[in-house]
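Narrative summary of target 7.
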Amino acid sequence: MRRLLALLALLVVAAAAPARAAVTLSARLEPSRAAVGDPVDLAVTVNGAQDAPVPTLTPPDGLSIRYVGPETQVSIVNGQMTSSITHHYTVVAQREGLFSVGPITLDYEGTKLGAGSPRLTVTASPTGGPTGGEQLRLVLEAPKTTVYLHERLPLGLSLWVGDTSVGDLQYPVIGGDGFALDPFREPSQRSVRTADGAFQLVDFTTTLVPLRVGTLSVGPATMSLAQVMQRPRRGFFLGGSGRQPIELRSEAITLEVLPLPEAGRPADFGGAVGRFSLDVAAAPRDLAAGDPVTLTITVRGTGTLEGAATPAVAERPGLKVYPVQAAAQQPATTPGEITRVFEQVVIPQQPGTVTLPPVRLAYFDPEARAYRVAQHGPIVLAVVHPAPGTPTPQVVGAAARPAPAVATPEPLGRDLVFIKDAPGALVPAAAARWRRPAFWLLQLVPPLVWVAVMLWTARRQRLGSDARFARFSAAGRTARTSLAAARTRLQGGDRAGCVDAVAQAVTAYLSAKLDLPPGSVDPERAGERLRGTRAGGAVVDDLRTLLATCERVRFAPGSSADGEAERALGQAEGIVRTLERERRLGRGFGATAASCLVALGLGLAGPAPAADETPQAAFFRGNALYADGRFAEAADAYAQVLAAGVESGPTYYNLGNARLRAGDAGGAVWAYARAPAAAARRRRRREPRLRAGAGHGAAAGAPVGARGLPLADVATADELAGAAAVAWWLLFGLLVAARLVPGARRGLRRAAFAVGLAGLVVLLSFGWRLATVDLRAEAVVVAPAAVSVRFEPSATGTSHFTAAPGSVLRVLGAREGWRQVARGDGARGWVEASALADL
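Modeled conformation, tokenized:
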């Protein structure tokens, strides 16, 4: 009787169901009239369907159209349900005029629909450009519009935000040419109140330097941001909000740039514009003839010093001077201040009182519209006769290196280390494998896989031996399948069959999950088993409501029972979902381990950028230059091979020869030291290093392997790391196989033990080589002359000892452009980092 009633109800519903409404497409612009830069909402509505794709829209020239997102609507009028989906777009016009937005078309189930081309009238913006409406403005300001060439002019850019919300602010861009801009400083924010209301101001500041004389147009400034727009409420449905990207544009500023006057220009004026002060310190002031004196010249002020002549002491009879060198810069004490520090070495050649001439800096003061001179001095030095037997000191790094004498060209193959005729195998000069974090992260994969297999096999064994656990594990999957079948019945009109399936699915699920006997599931017993859990009370209430709903739907007449059945199905799905979160076993560890494998990689270096000359061509060009005796140019050619991101032993050998013949002993030692590692992947012992001028150090070529660890001498650290990784993966592979193949478990475990023992030896050898070779940081002196190793990291620190070009020193630390080094006899000190090259 129940099945007959259900069949009759299905026939009645089918007869009363209206024919499917035709699908239509429409479009509207809100508003249809806007100013340049104002965002407009374009709504394209598909009536009669909610699964329609995004319509095709062709934007006309002058309009920017961005898709925002969909909005679905469902309405019930007189018992009939209609549905639609509205796709929203943001339209922004870049110029005024009348635009046709479209055509707008849609292909739905083989039918092509059209919404026409709605029209948009665009008027000029009140500020002459896109501004985002009256509540958003961008204002570019300058304190004056007449400046001198190379005068620093502060610029201010203000973003005015009124009664609106914005986000995704980007730094502004100021257009124009003929000037240079400093980077924007950190913006500040303030509030102002005007006749138009309250505004939030975001202030950006920078500095402009005009580079040519005449009229300059600065701007307009543009800024990209997103404005939060509210969509209006339509009937029963609430409105929404979305981010509309817009671009603000300010008005331009016109500057009149005046040339620097010729009248009153000092002869030593070098182009400094602004206001500056000069300070000069000399040390020591009491010295012997031939001793060096270091002048520290400090320039402070505001303005432009780029391109200006550096203040210095000029050479004269009895006084030897060296070129001025830039020293470590001091931080500015006030914002906008420029501080430059220079050093110059002078050597009095004769005893007596030596007066150094004043140090001058001529500059143009744009505020006073006149030239000024900042000077310091004269400085008086007391020079005595040198002590008997005292050698004349040498200035380290001050004198320019003399050009090497032109050598007689000699044929290839006749040198300290023979020139190589071919570059050999050029390989990428990538970092060592063991230095990459990705290499060590990859080693987590084997143990994760092994643990996942262990858990999976243990779970499989338990499922085969524990029927209650198997029933518990499969409860969620079985319930979801049953509820899906119930939903299918409801969609087919079988209301009674749907509620029966729902009730059976929920009771069977709770029976398995809560370990209750079949047919004894009720709210009271379920509540006892769920007591103490977070979701216990809610699940019991939902279960009680669900069972009551199912009983009511079975005997409820009329169409209102359809909604009751739908509600019962939703309650059942909610109960299952809640308990799965509360009492679930979770994903298998194998799935977790598999997800951990994602994003792990070797991190291999990418290919080197393309160049006009191939590395091989650069190598052979270097050989030709070397044969002609042009050693410095040959060294540059070999260095070009390395700059392409590849290396080889012959390239380093030839580079060392060319640098040595060109007079660069330090660069030659660096190249010789790197040649053996690039020439051979495997070697019996460390190749000896050429330590030209070192004077101290451990003997090169000594074995590094400890007793019982000969692999430390046979292979490189990279090779040992790779071999240890192979043994690691093979070990866990054998363990996994032993777990999956019980019949061969004994033999596989023996093989795993042997592989683990071999891997341990390789790993110990790797650690020993790291401790004795690869982690001992060393550097070679590549300065053109001997460098002073000082007691402190300062140019004025007392010299401890000197290191000749090519000296190999052990690196102990680094600080602010200086590196702490140690000599072979244990003497330590600080040397400028620029004088060293890492080995």
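The chain has a mean pLDDT of 75.
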